[in-house]
Amino acid sequence: LQLDPSDHEAIGALAKTYEATGRWNDLIGVLTKQADAASDPVEKVELYLRVADLWIERFANYNQATQPLEQVIAIEPENRRALKALKDIYSKKRAWTHLYEVLLKEARLASDPSARLEHKLELADLAGKRLHRHADAIQIWKEILEQAPEHPEALDNLQKLAEREKDWSTLAEVLERRVEEAASDPAEQLKLLPKLGVIYGEHLEDTLRAASAWKRILDLDPKNGRALRTLRP
Asked: Tell me: the pLDDT tens digits for 33-44?
């Protein structure tokens, strides 16, 4: 190897020797060089995965395992084994930005609807609570609602985020949904519709929808003073 560092036969023989004698640090060094020199992407991926496994299994060193796993993702962005390992590592390290990117890839790869929903729930929670990427969290909660309209937390979280971000169109969508769900509860509708009227009229400047909200109030309560005053020509 001193004469020819790229001699594959010598590298392989040395790796076997180090493994047989339990010289794990030396084995990691040789395998890393072997992976760096390999021209076949499949071989590179296998070698980097093995390096990552050695760091974790022999030394419980998750920081060192991150680099070969990221090199795997650079070659195969959809490698599920590497993504799962990185997800575990980033969770332990509380590396929220990196974890978000991994979860995003997992959600896109998931073919099973329930698995995809689970990934999106993690993403929404991470974006909203850890990264304060509220606009991203709003979009993800909307996608969750499309997939699972009855999800118990989706509307509450979407409403809180929309209020915080002053995302009036999203907030109007949420309130419209709540009004529809409260079809058998006029009292609840009378609490929601004035908010909807204000959002349409003052924030979205949509006079037609604002008028519609106030008229719906009068359908439920013909003597409602606020609605009458607002609709008065």
From this structure: 889 888 899 999
